[in-house]
Design brief:
single chain
Length: 1024
C-alpha cells in the first residue's frame, strides 16, 4: 500500500423503467413547444421513471447512513508518508496535523478514514502487545508524547464530524527496510517488540525487511490478539488489512545469476504443515486462517465493527481454466499467497477493497477489466466491493485529469460496488491536476446503496438472438437479469450492473456453439452459430406472372443525350414468348429474351434486350431522336410503351442549363459518394451540359447535377468563359463575403484544408492579373490565388485565423451579376439571463418510430428512446436560455433521413446537434468499449463538436474520445455548424445503466445546452 513503486504494476423491476410518454405531434420538423403553448397544452416531454439507483439521502442528523457510499482516504503512517509528518512531534503538533486531515476530509467530501495504526508491528495507539511506533515518537517503544493517543483523538474528532474511522493494520510486516538500507536485525527492535521477545517469529527477506512467519500458529494468534485489543479499547468502525502478506517477490543473486529470493520458512513448513504437501497451498491456508480468525474475533467482540482487506488488484491472470481476470500482471495468489476468493466465499470479510491502482488504458491490468472481475466474484456473497484507487498517480501519469471521475462513475454502475478508498493523500491535499476538484464534484451529493432486491425478472438476452449466425470467431451477448439471483456464464460468475444488466464476450467455434447460462441455479442453453448462414432452396426464383399482357420499359431509365456511335441498351419486360421491338427515329430494333422463365402462368415475365447505336450528328448540333417506342405482340395480344427521349450530341455540342434549386448536389460521377463531390450549387448557376443520362446532366465543369434541379435554356443561350474584373473580401452584416465580379453565375467549390479556406472558381478566364482585395475581417489573415490544374479554373486560398474559427458558408448570385460566397462570422452571446436570444438551434433525436436504433441490454429501452429523452431536456434548457429550438422529432415517430436533411437545409439554423448512442458489431468485445465521441464532417462543425463533446462527457464523468471527422449525412451541410454526439455506448452496460437514470438524462441534456454556451463563449476571442 505505502510503496507506489511496488503497487503501480500492481429487469426490469429494479429498473422500474425509463418510459418516455410523449404527446402526439405532427410534422417531422416542428418547434413543438410554441405550438403546444398556443393551445394551452404542455409540450411533449420525456418522463423517466425512477429506478433503484444511487440517489441523495441523509441518514439522520449527525448520523452517517450506514448504506452511504464509502468515500475513503488512506492515511499512511509508515515512513511518515501522511501522518505524522515526521517522528517525535509534540502532542500539539500531532493534534494540528490530525485536525488538518479531518478538515481536508470535510472539504473534499470524505466520510471514512483508513488510519494506519500498525505499520511495522508497532502502534500509533495505546497497546500492551506492540511497542509505540518509531514513526510517531522517533524511537520505537518510547512512550506517547504527553500521553497523546492519535487513534483515540482521531476517533473522537472524526466521529464528531460524521466521519467513520477504520484502523488500518499491516499484519505481518515487521520492518520497512529496503535492499539498499536493510532493516533485518531483530536486535534493533524495541525490547518489547513481539518479534524480539519471540525468537523465530520473524524472517528476514531479500527486500531488506523482516516479516512475521504466518506459518507459526502463535504468530497468527498474536496478530489476531492485536486486532482484538484495538476493537476492545477503541470505538473503531472497522479493521482493514492491506495487501502485504507474504513478501512481494524480490530478486537476489545466486552464483552470479539473478533469481527470485526464497522466503526461508522451510523449517516452519516442516513443523506446522498440517498435512499439506505443497508449500504454496500451505502458505495460502496460513493467510486464510489469519483472515478467518480475525473476522470471527472481531464479530465476537463487536458485531457492528466491519472487517475488510485491500488485496493486490490481480488475483490470478486467466489461463482459460482458473477463472482469473483478463490481465497479465503479478498474481497475488501465486506470488504473495493471497487468496481473497477463499475469504469471500468463506464469508470472512465484510468488504473487499482491491487495489486497482491502474488506468483504463493499462495494458497488463486495465481498470475496467479488473473492476468487472471483482464485481462478478462478490456477486451474491453479501461481501461489499470497495475499490482502492491509486490517486498518487496523478503526480506521475500523463494527462490524468478526469481519470478518477471516470473510474468512480464506471464503478458506481456495478452491482456490488459500495464505494472507493483513495491512496495518495498528498496529491489530494495539493489538488494535483485538479484531483481534489474532481473528488468534490463526485462527492457533491450523498449516494445510498442497498442490497439487491429480487425483481422476479427472467433472464433475457437482448442480443444476439438465440440461434443467430455470427460471421466471426467471437461474439458478445448482452442482456438483463434479476440482480438478486446469481448468474453464471459457462460456469463463471458474470459482472452485472445494479439493474442486473450484463455483457459477456466469448470465442466461437465454426458452426453451432451451445453456450450455457446458469441462472437461479438452472442451466439455460443458448445457441450461437459461427460462419455464414447456409442458403436454402435451389437459388432459382420462379418468374412473376404479370396477370395480363403488359410491357414495362427497364432501359434506358432516363432521357439520354450522348455522342454519335454511343451504344444504347434497350430493355423491357413482357410476357414470355412475345415478339418485342423498339423503334427509335423510325428504326426498328428486335429485342431478344435473355432467358426462358420458370414457373406457371399465362403471362410469365421475361426480359428482352437489344442495342441501338446513336447515329452521326453535325458538329455543334443536338439532334432529337424522340422517344423510344416499345411494342410486344403474342398471337392476338399486344402492348406498347413509350420510353425515354434520345438525343445525339454532335462534336462540341452543348445544352445551356441553369440550376433551379438551392443546395443542388453537383457530383463527380453518377454514383459517387456525396462526401467526395463538389459543394452543392445554388439556384442561378449556369453552365453548358455536354451530355445527359441516368437522370443527370453532365456539365462542362465536369460535374453531374440531377435533371430535376436544372432547366434547359434556349439553345442559342451563350454562357461564356467569365472574365474576372475584381475579387474582394469584406464584412457585410454578420458575414465575411467573398465577391467575384464576373459576367456569369459561375460554378464553385469550397473546402477547408491545412488551415486555409480554398475556393475554386470554374469557367473563368485564368489570365486575370489582379489581386484579392481583403478588408479587415474576423476570419482571414491573408488571401491569394493561383491557376488550377483544371482548365478555366482558379483557386483562391484564404488563410484562417484559426481552424476552429470557421462557421459555414454558402453561395449566391446577386442582381448586379456578382458571384458571392457568404461565410458566417463568429457570434456573441446576448447579455442578460437569456444569452442565446436570437439563436436558432436545430436538435435531432436520432432514430425513432420504426427505427429503434441500437439495442441496449433491456429490450424495452433502446437508442431511440434515450436519444429523445436527452434531446427534450436539451431543448428545454436551450429555450430557457433564449434560443429558438427546432426539433426533427419530439415524439417516438419515424422521420426518414432525407426528410431530416431537407428540413435542416431549409432552416439553415445557427447550429445543429444530433443526439445518438453508439454501439459495436457482434464480433467486438463490448466489455472493453466505452466513452462519448463527438463527430462532425463539414469543417464548420469542429469547434461546436469539441465544446458539446467536452461538456456532455464532463457532466457524465464519461471518457471523452477525441472529436473526429466522419462522413455523416447529418453533418455534411457546409452552410452551418453541425455535430453528432454519440453520448455513450449503449452496448456498454455500465454506460447504459447510467443513461437509464433520470439524473443522467437530465445531466446529459443540460450539458448539451452548456456546450452551446461554451461554443459561443469560445468565439469571443475572434470577435475583436
Amino acid at each position: 500500500m505505502e510503496y507506489p513503486e511496488l503497487l503501480s504494476p500492481k429487469l426490469t423491476s429494479l429498473l422500474l423503467c425509463v418510459m418516455i410518454l410523449l404527446t402526439a405531434v405532427s410534422g417531422a420538423f416542428a418547434a413543438c413547444a410554441d405550438a403546444a403553448a398556443a393551445d394551452g397544452q404542455q409540450p411533449a416531454v420525456a418522463r423517466v421513471e425512477p429506478i433503484a439507483y444511487p440517489v441523495p439521502e441523509q441518514g439522520g442528523e449527525g448520523i452517517l447512513n450506514p448504506d452511504a457510499e464509502v468515500r475513503g482516504i488512506w492515511i499512511a503512517s509508515v515512513l511518515n508518508i501522511n501522518f505524522p509528518s515526521e517522528p517525535g512531534l509534540s502532542a500539539e503538533r500531532l493534534i494540528a496535523e490530525l485536525d488538518a486531515i479531518i478538515e481536508n476530509c470535510m472539504k473534499n467530501g470524505f466520510n471514512t478514514i483508513y488510519f494506519q495504526v500498525r505499520p511495522t508491528a508497532d502502534a500509533l495507539y495505546q497497546s500492551t502487545l506492540f511497542p509505540t511506533s518509531y514513526y510517531l515518537t522517533g524511537k520505537q517503544g518510547q512512550a506517547l508524547a504527553g500521553g497523546f493517543d492519535p487513534l483515540a483523538y482521531l476517533l473522537e474528532k472524526a466521529h464528531a464530524r460524521n466521519i467513520r474511522v477504520h484502523a488500518w493494520v499491516n499484519p505481518l510486516r515487521v520492518t520497512s527496510g529496503t535492499t539498499a538500507k536493510p532493516q533485518t536485525n531483530i536486535a534493533d527492535l524495541a525490547a518489547n517488540h513481539p518479534a524480539r521477545r519471540n525468537a523465530g517469529w520473524a524472517i528476514p527477506y531479500a527486500d531488506g525487511k523482516l516479516y512475521f512467519d504466518a506459518g507459526i500458529p502463535e504468530v497468527r494468534q498474536y496478530v489476531i490478539d492485536g486486532v482484538a485489543e484495538i476493537v476492545r479499547n477503541y470505538d473503531v468502525d472497522g479493521i482493514i488489512f492491506d495487501d502485504y502478506f507474504y513478501p512481494y517477490p524480490t530478486n537476489t543473486t545466486v552464483n552470479g545469476k539473478s533469481v527470485v529470493a526464497e522466503f526461508a520458512d522451510d523449517a516452519t513448513f516442516a513443523s506446522f504443515n498440517r498435512g499439506f504437501t505443497d508449500k504454496a497451498d500451505w502458505r495460502r491456508d496460513n493467510i486464510n486462517q489469519l483472515i478467518e480468525g480475525t473476522y470471527l474475533t472481531i464479530k465476537r467482540l463487536d458485531a457492528e465493527c466491519e472487517f475488510g482487506v485491500a488485496p493486490f488488484g490481480i488475483w490470478q491472470n486467466d489461463d482459460g481454466e482458473n477463472g482469473g481476470s483478463a490481465s497479465s500482471g503479478l498474481e497475488s495468489y501465486h506470488k504473495i499467497y493471497c487468496d481473497p476468493l477463499a475469504w469471500i466465499k468463506g464469508g470472512y470479510v465484510d468488504y473487499i477493497a482491491p487495489q486497482i491502482y491502474w488506468r483504463f488504458t493499462t495494458t497488463t491490468a486495465p481498470y475496467d477489466v479488473i473492476l468487472r472481475w471483482w464485481n462478478a466474484q462478490v456477486d451474491g456473497t453479501g461481501v461489499d466491493l470497495l475499490i482502492s484507487h491509486g490517486v498518487y498517480n496523478y503526480d506521475t501519469w500523463s494527462d490524468p485529469e478526469g481519470e478518477l471521475s471516470q473510474q468512480i462513475e464506471y464503478a458506481r454502475s456495478e452491482l456490488n460496488y459500495r464505494g472507493s478508498i483513495h491512496y495518495g493523500y498528498a496529491a489530494i491535499e495539493a489538488n494535483s491536476h485538479g484531483l481534489a476538484d474532481e473528488l468534490r464534484a463526485l462527492h457533491a451529493e450523498q449516494i445510498i446503496y442497498t442490497d439487491p432486491t429480487s425483481t422476479g425478472a427472467p433472464l433475457s438476452i437482448a442480443s444476439p438472438a438465440n440461434g443467430a449466425w455470427i460471421d466471426g470467431d467471437a461474439t458478445y451477448l448482452i442482456g438483463s437479469s434479476d440482480p438478486a439471483k446469481p448468474l453464471l456464464f459457462e460456469g463463471r460468475p458474470v459482472s452485472r450492473t445494479k439493474s442486473g444488466y450484463f455483457s459477456v464476450y466469448t470465442a466461437l467455434e465454426p458452426g453451432e456453439n451451445r453456450l450455457t447460462f446458469t441462472y437461479d441455479g438452472k442451466d439455460l442453453p443458448y445457441v450461437i452459430n459461427s460462419g455464414t448462414r447456409p442458403s436454402s432452396g435451389t437459388g432459382q426464383t420462379a418468374a412473376k406472372d404479370l396477370g395480363s399482357f403488359k410491357l414495362t420499359v427497364t432501359a434506358p431509365t432516363a432521357d439520354l443525350a450522348a455522342a454519335a456511335k454511343t451504344a444504347v441498351t434497350l430493355s423491357c419486360t413482357a410476357p414470355s414468348g412475345s415478339t418485342v421491338k423498339a423503334v427509335v427515329n423510325g428504326i426498328s430494333v428486335t429485342l431478344k429474351a435473355t432467358a426462358t422463365p420458370t414457373g406457371s402462368g399465362n403471362y410469365l415475365a421475361a426480359t428482352y434486350t437489344g442495342t441501338y447505336t446513336l447515329p452521326a450528328a453535325s458538329d455543334g448540333a443536338v439532334v432529337d431522336l424522340g422517344h423510344v417506342i416499345f411494342t410486344a405482340t403474342r398471337r392476338s395480344e399486344s402492348a406498347t410503351a413509350s420510353g425515354p427521349r434520345l438525343r445525339v450530341m454532335g462534336k462540341d455540342a452543348v445544352i445551356p442549363v441553369e440550376v433551379t434549386r438551392d443546395s443542388s448536389e453537383m457530383k463527380l460521377g453518377y454514383d459517387t459518394w456525396y462526401y467526395d463531390d463538389f459543394t452543392p450549387q445554388v439556384a442561378g448557376m449556369r453552365d453548358y451540359a455536354v451530355s445527359q443520362g441516368n437522370g443527370y446532366y453532365k456539365l462542362r465543369v465536369a460535374g453531374y447535377i440531377r435533371e430535376e434541379n436544372l432547366r434547359e435554356l434556349p439553345a442559342d443561350t451563350k454562357i461564356d468563359i467569365a472574365e474576372i474584373n475584381r475579387i474582394t473580401v469584406a464584412v457585410e452584416g454578420g458575414h465575411t463575403v467573398i465577391t467575384v465580379n464576373a459576367a456569369e453565375n459561375i460554378p464553385m467549390n469550397g473546402y477547408v484544408e491545412d488551415g486555409k479556406f480554398y475556393l475554386s472558381l470554374y469557367n473563368v478566364n485564368t489570365d486575370w492579373k489582379g489581386k484579392i482585395e481583403m478588408s479587415a475581417n474576423p476570419l482571414f489573415t491573408a488571401a491569394s490565388w493561383a491557376k488550377s490544374t483544371k482548365a478555366n479554373s482558379i483557386k483562391l486560398a484564404l488563410t484562417l485565423r484559426d481552424v476552429n474559427n470557421f462557421y459555414g458558408f454558402e453561395f449566391d448570385y446577386d442582381a448586379a451579376g456578382r458571384t458571392l460566397v457568404r461565410l458566417r462570422n463568429p457570434s456573441a452571446l446576448a447579455s442578460g439571463s437569456q444569452p442565446l436570444t436570437g439563436k436558432v438551434i436545430a436538435l435531432d433525436a436520432g432514430h425513432g418510430g420504426s427505427d429503434s436504433g441500437a439495442l441496449g441490454a433491456w429490450g424495452e429501452q433502446n437508442e431511440a428512446d434515450l436519444n429523445l429523452a436527452i434531446t427534450l431536456v436539451a431543448a428545454r434548457a436551450l429555450r430557457e436560455l433564449g434560443a429558438e429550438v427546432v426539433l426533427t422529432r419530439d415524439a417516438d415517430v419515424t422521420v426518414v433521413m432525407e426528410d431530416r436533411l431537407t428540413a435542416l437545409d431549409r432552416l439553415a439554423p445557427d447550429l445543429s446537434i444530433s443526439i445518438h448512442q453508439n454501439s459495436m458489431a457482434y464480433t467486438s468485445d463490448i466489455t472493453r468499449v466505452r466513452g462519448l465521441i463527438g463527430l462532425y464532417y463539414a469543417d464548420a462543425g469542429k469547434l461546436l463538436t469539441e465544446c458539446v463533446s467536452s461538456a456532455v462527457s464532463g457532466a457524465l464523468n464519461r471518457y471523452e474520445r477525441t472529436p473526429t471527422e466522419q462522413r455523416l449525412a447529418l453533418c455534411r451541410n457546409a452552410r452551418f455548424p453541425s455535430t453528432l454526439i454519440e453520448v455513450g455506448f449503449i452496448t456498454c452496460v455500465e454506460e447504459y445503466e447510467k443513461m437509464m437514470s433520470p439524473e443522467a438524462i437530465t445531466a446529459a441534456g443540460e450539458a448539451v445546452a452548456q456546450g452551446v454556451l461554451n461554443y459561443y463563449a469560445a468565439q469571443a476571442k475572434w470577435l475583436s
